[in-house]
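User: I'll paste a sequence; please echo it back and then give the predicted structure.

Assistant: Echoing your sequence first, then the prediction.
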Amino acid sequence: MTADTDEAPALDSIPAERWLIDRLFAEGIIPAAARQEALRHILPPRRWGPWTARLLLAVGTALILAGLFCLVAFNWAALPIAIKLALPQVAIAGCFVAALWLGLRQLSGKLLLLSASVLAGAQLAVFGQVYQTGADAYGLFMAWALLILPWVVVAELAALWIVWLVVANVSVDLFWRQAVLPGPDMSALIYPGLMLFNGAFLAAREHLASRDVDWLRERWTRIVLVLPVLGLALVAAIRFIEAPQTATVSVRAGAAAAIVVHILLYAVYRYRLPDMWVLGATILSACIIVEWTVFKAVDAVFGDAEAITYFLMGCFTLAVFAATTVGLRSIAKEIGAEHA
């Protein structure tokens, strides 16, 4: 007699996770009372304590930084030059030393290093104002990004990476406008360029998260990187839709890149790395592009009859978003509650 190789796993080897409890409840295996009791055990009220403490620590850090900026800005005319230059430097040094003392493994140490990174930008701005260097704005942001890059690498803090990415994006955009000085035909190439720039960091995030890099496995780090890529793709597509007949080569390239971005995001986060947040954002962006395209077409036909135009667009909008909702629900059931 052949032994059955498909043995059921032991009960104590199955991790107790919320998605599993929700799925058991959705399929009618456990009643509502059992679901509530199970959630009470795996999500105890005391978990709100650490979360609230971290939130208050982050908010307090942001308020202290804002207060320091306001102090310098409000008293700018009355402060001696030495104080203007020394105040940010002392704050940077204090934050850095305190971060080393507390340790970068602690959240407080990471937030102090984040504060030092933000203050580095303030120091560069103060220096430029005091000495009136006359440099283009992109130089400040480029220097800021380069100066804090070592801290960003060693801190292993997702929020600090996001700050660095914002600074780097502003630097690239300003460099394109102020140093490259593209002509009207090439100006829109900034959109596919920034899509590629941010997409590279998104790909790096997915690679490192798959290698069990814990500080990058938080789900919000993915959506924060996806949204700029989608936003740039949406703007590039709408620029082409507004005037397709007179679109320049760069505008056409941006629209083509937008199509590629939407297809790639849908394919990756639908089949490779299922994630309903990213899918929802991608499909919403695609719906906006379709809506804009149809609106321009309807307006071209019924331009003088605004009532007909808006009536038809209202009906079309209801149909599109109803179909999208049904489709997203179907996908959510297929990929499972753990990815919803």
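Confidence is low (pLDDT under 50) at residues 1-5. The first helix runs from residue 18 to 26.
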